[in-house]
Amino acid sequence: MERFFLDVAHLLAGGLVLTSFMLLYQTRMSSLLVVFALQAFVLTLAVGWQAHVQHAPHLYITAAIALILKALIIPYALSRVVVRLGIHRSIETVGGISLTMLAGMGCVALSMVVMMKAMAAADPLTREDLAFALSVVLLGMLIMVTRRNAVSQIVGFMSVENGLILAAAGAKGMPLVVEISVAFSVLVAFIVIGVFLFRIRERFDSVELQVLDDYRGERR
Amino acid sequence: MVLILDLAVQGVQMLAVLALAPLLLGFTRKVKARLLRRQGPPLLQPYRDLLRLSRKEVVLAENASWLFRSAPYMIFAATWVAAALVPTFATGLHFSWTADLIAIAALLGSARVFLALVGMDVGTSFGGIGSSREMMFASLAEPAMIMIVFVVALIAGSTQLSHIAIFRQEHASLRVSLGLALVALVIVALAENARIPVDNPATHLELTMVHEAMVLEYSGRHLAVIELAAALKLLLYVSLVGCIFFPWGIASGEPSPAAYALGAVTYLAKLAAGGFLLVAFETSIAKMRVFRVPEFLGAALMLGLLGTLLLFVSRTF
Amino acid sequence: MAVSATLAAIAVLLGTAALAIAVHRRPSATALIYGICLAVSLLLLALAGTSLLGRQPAQHLTLPIGLPWLGARFRIDALTAFFQIVINLGAAAASLYALGYGRHEEAPGRVLPFYPVFLAGMNLVLVADDAFTFLVAWEFMSLSSWALVLAHHHDRENARAGYIYILMASFGTFALLLAFGLLAGPSGQYAFGDIRGMTHAGWLEGLVLVLALVGAGSKAGLVPLHVWLPLAHPAAPSHVSALMSGVMTKVAIYGFIRIVFDLLGPPSWWWSLPVLGLASATAVLGVLYALMQRDLKRLLAYSTVENVGIVFIGLGLALAFMANNMAGPAALAFTAALFHAFNHSLFKSLMFFGAGAVLTATGARDIEKLGGLILRMPQTAFVFLGGVLAISALPPLNGFVSEWLMFQAVLLSPDLPQWGLKLSVPAVGAMLALAAALSAACFVRAFGIAFLGRPRTPEAAEAAEVDTASRASMFVLLALCLIAGVLPGLLIDAIAPTVAGQIGQSMPAQSTIPGWSIVPIAESRSSYNGLLVFIFITVSTLVAIQFIHRFASDALRRAPAWDCGFPNSDPATQYTADSFAQPVRRVFGENVLMARDTVDMPPPGDPRPARLTVTVRDPIWEVAYAPLSSFISYAAEQLNHLQFLTIRRYLSLVFAALIILLLGVAIWS
Predict the structure, then answer these.
(1) Cβ-based contacts of A113 with chain C (< 8 Å)
(2) B191 near B210, Cβ under 8 Å?
(3) Cβ B314–A97 below 8 Å, yes or no?
(4) Which of A3, A67, A216, C275 is buried deepest, with most CB atoms within 10 A?
(5) pLDDT at res. C292
(6) What is the ipTM, given to two decimal places?
(7) Domain-by-domain residue ranges, chain B?
């Protein structure tokens, strides 16, 4: 039975890494948001499973917050933002999809090595789940680094957040108050970013970073 | 006695895969039509198609060579031998030790090489486009398949399909590397069988053809043999997914007639389920641009590589 | 006894070279010289075969020539015997081929004397048992092959190829010289027997590994030292190209194995990292370059680079296993590497012979000037197709067996404890699979454009089949490929003494396994039966043919090609080599080889034609070699000023040197 718990936890954490790779693979905005919602849903399942295995009921609340906020509200809101700003087109990447996936592989390998070596004395279940969580964080940062579009960078940031929640859930529990404050800070950050995006869009007619760079006042 | 039984099982399997392949094809076409709110062709239509083709006269291009005339049989033979070695309803195939999963993948590779060569034989640009695209897809699908084989072999401790099926029956578990390998195998199966989103099996527009372009010059009995080989390949991949990832019901060890019957029934159920899921996926997604397919297959390669890496790092993944 | 017979045979070869100088003008000279070479190669093959299969212990011989305190030492052990079989099999096939091909040689005086010297040099490297003899024989091999590369020296391409070849060969020998110098130590013990007995510091062994990798690797064709190979191999006559690609690279691999596995002590685990890294890069880059080539022989040369990479992957895995005391997996990896070396010498020679046949029949090496040769040269097409199937690692031929063994070795690697190996071996496995798949694509392209389709030039339309000797040698090689693929257990058991000699243990005996299958580790893990697979495929094909001919219609009609109802009779409308490679060029070449397809479309109203330009750049040449050569030119320019100094300046140079040396003596003592 112990083995079964381990396997399902690994499967869900691995599923989260898989959805991160799917995020790296997307070239269209709408499918990116759908996959992000999928990632939040898998996160819900993973945190819920951890709640069941660790007998920690407050993690159910974390899972519910992830489901409602990240799988439903935020993707819906972002898709509205995309429609309002008129960004319907494809996401331009730096370096091409194949190179990004190879870099993603490197990130996963790196996080495996780091976690296995740094926590050699810890419980194997925790250690391997943390390795997956670190992979999700690194892949989220990779998304932010290799996308030219501001909305996709927000999605990358959210993905980093997902990885951190997975890590916290895997490490035998986290106080609820921390989770609520984290959720509120995320929401506030989102509102701020949204407001800024509207202002930028009104001012410059575009949210493409290339265009914005020209106005920064520094000549490259 | 055991020897005769094993030989009988092997023989029944070889004939069964041959007989069931057009049925699977007919089933998928019927379900697809129904999902698209059409009546669809009858279930046994592929058999009638093969019969009709074999009765027709072969129209051969003037400069077609001996390779063009003999390749359909070699393609069929390679695919049939590979399909005969994948356990479908029983694992005790007498010749399962002659070729393991790597050899099966390589046999399919040789069928593909012959197909690509005949695409270039007559010297038309259609054949060239089919062959060059097919070899580009193969250059990514083959390594992805090898990575999947690595994942499965590292978990089961063997590359022999019978041993893999028995291992998976005894140690059923939801390993994350197996999950990644399943996703990768589905992607590779879509690419190898020329299904949407990689290639459209029902089209004759040159911009969307890969497999159809290579066999454009074939007619009559040659085309019948090639179509049968393609159906056999689809059956092989569905059986492969069933054998490796969902092996429950396959008769193993010293089975009784009841176990064989159960194996046969579960196999037919798996074929039906596989066909239905394939068609459901095909109707919900559009065909990709040709140069998006390498990224798709590259994702399968990455997933396979990730699964292998996880298993190298720790055996519990 | 075997050693003296071998040396006698080598002496006969050198004598044949002298004979060739005397008789090269006569019309029967070709038949005579190549006939003698064929006979001697077969004799050496027989000697090596009895040595290896008879499981004879190592035999020594010392001759009082060479260095006075050392003599010239010769030794035949299992490793030498195996490589002698590989080399002399290739040499015999090439000599047989040349009996027919050599008649078309326009300057036999430039080829005939050097060919036996080349064979002698290669054989001498294998039996050398001390560093001096080894390096002298190595240089013999390099210089004679260089002379053969320059056989058609009036072609500027060949002249440049020869120049780069001699540079790289000298550089390689220099690296080997340093390696042997480090191994011999300050006391100058150059005999291999003495070196085996010495223990060396860890850093010194590492340095020797790197030097051996550079020296032997440059001769074998490891990236980034491969640049001479695609220039030099095609420049030589076809039978010499086959020898250089199929056989001389194996001598280089022998050199690497002799230094790293035999002369150095037990390996450290990190030794396998540079070997695996360079080897996997070589495998993938080699085949990517091959896919961009239009010249058939250059394509084959790049494919050699890829296959050498695959052999070194096997050797790297063997080193990793040996360093962790896993003798069984090490034996498997080493056997896979040796098997692949043997296979490659067979099918690469076969394909170079085919390329030579095409060159003789049509006068063209550019595959875009060929087409439709399967109808004009059916037998050559058949054997070339066999070579294509073998090199693409397809069952039931031999290429598949060595790939399979190597994959089985990779599957044993998770037990390696070091992190560096745990992370790199899966990537190496993926690159191995990628190289195999790309090589299938490359050879489908080569065969499809050259032999299939419609003839693109009048020369291709009027090609005729080549002579009997050429065809016979190709058929012999194809038969050997089939036998090695169908009965691999025999070859594995034959190699077993070689493997045991280097690793300490060999693979389990394959001939005891019922049914002619091979079981590398255990029956429960994996097995492969090439003979049964071959029988199954043949029987299925025959059953299908019989069934169809009995129950289906027999009618057949020839008609113009269908081509979707828009047939175009101009052969220029078929796919070209560049168009076939375009998808792969776009997917892999854009990042790795900076391949770009640019279209120059004239504006409407302008009647000039649109132009498609395909540029493929070699990043290794641009990053490593071009700056190096410009730096050397610059340095030479500056140093040239030393030629034109006044007498006073020369005297002051001598004075300054004297002062510096005296200062050195003052400070140091």
Answers:
(1) 419, 423
(2) no
(3) no
(4) C275
(5) 93
(6) 0.95
(7) 2-313
